[in-house]
Amino acid sequence: MATALQGFRLATRSCKCRSAAPNCATRPIGNRRQRPFSATAFQWLEKEKDDIDPALSAALEKAAKGPDGQHGQYLQSELRKERVAKTFMNEGEDEAVDGFPDYDDDEGEDIPTLAHGELEHHREMRHYARLAAWEMPMLATLAKPFVPPSADMPLRFRYTTYMGEQHPAEKKVCLEFCTEDMHDLSPVQREKLKRLAGVRYNPETDIVKMSCEMFETQAQNKRYLGDLVDELLREAKDPTDTFEDVPLDTRHHTFKTKPKFPKEWVMTEERQKALAEYREKAAALDEHRMLQGQVVDGVQRIEEAYAKPQQVAETLTDIDALPRTGRAKGRTVAVRR
């Protein structure tokens, strides 16, 4: 057994870049348990002699010297040996077996880091699956009917969420409102509000749009935008200066010309009647040409094109069938290349 597996063990230990000399030289072979041939080696851990009960050791030595000395030697050697602790690599085996005898106790009992990552991902997916199966149906009890915003709620806030993931843009809050929805403002005050909004005013849609992401939370940014709108309305209502002498600056906005459908192309009843008459005349002209044979029949032309190769093949067959006479007389001309 030891001789047959000596080369295999040395090759295995050399691949692991470990010293094999102490394990092979200092470990006696005679103390090992006799068992059938196997390609898997047992690993034994030697115990200290002080751990053995002296009385039991003396009894075993006395039994070894008696008539049944072989059994006493076997029991004494077995007392000083301990098998390898069972791990998930040898779970379910009758005896704890380790394929590499010089492995450490804690080595090889864990999975790689990538495998731990896959297990963590699997746990996360199972967590959300449990939430979807057991907790999300309970949210139906908290559902409220949709109520459209009334006239006294002109402000529209927009938030951004990344479904639980942290992102720098998640704290950003956008605010939009139309100047026409501010019913407590007069036309002069509304024009002043447009001038105060500056580049945030869209002259085409009459909407003021602003955003804030200075603070860490969405609530703080929303509160800041609300205070800013209150300050704008307060300044617009100030009768000290109405800004009527200041023109509205729209250079920040690019007016895009949208193509419109020409009025001349609009389908009217007269155009529909003219198109119907034109189609009737075209159909009558095609029928007249077909009767005179002036219309080309595409199907007939295709059939004629397919029939031509057959006629050529039949002609070549007839030429090959003609009797051949003697060799034609002539002069051979050399060709230079």
From TrEMBL:
Q: By its UniProt entry, which InterPro entries does this protein fall under? A: Ribosomal_mS35_mit, Ribosomal_mS35_mt
Q: Pinpoint the Small ribosomal subunit protein mS35 mitochondrial conserved domain residues.
A: 145-265
Q: Which GO terms describe its biological process?
A: mitochondrial translation
Write down the superkingdom of origin: Eukaryota
Q: Which GO terms describe its cellular component?
A: mitochondrial small ribosomal subunit
For molecular function, the Gene Ontology terms on record are: structural constituent of ribosome
PANTHER family of this UniProt entry?
MITOCHONDRIAL 28S RIBOSOMAL PROTEIN S28, SMALL RIBOSOMAL SUBUNIT PROTEIN MS35
The protein here is known as Small ribosomal subunit protein mS35 mitochondrial conserved domain-containing protein
Its source organism is Oidiodendron maius (strain Zn)
Lineage, highest ranks first: Eukaryota, Fungi, Dikarya, Ascomycota, Pezizomycotina
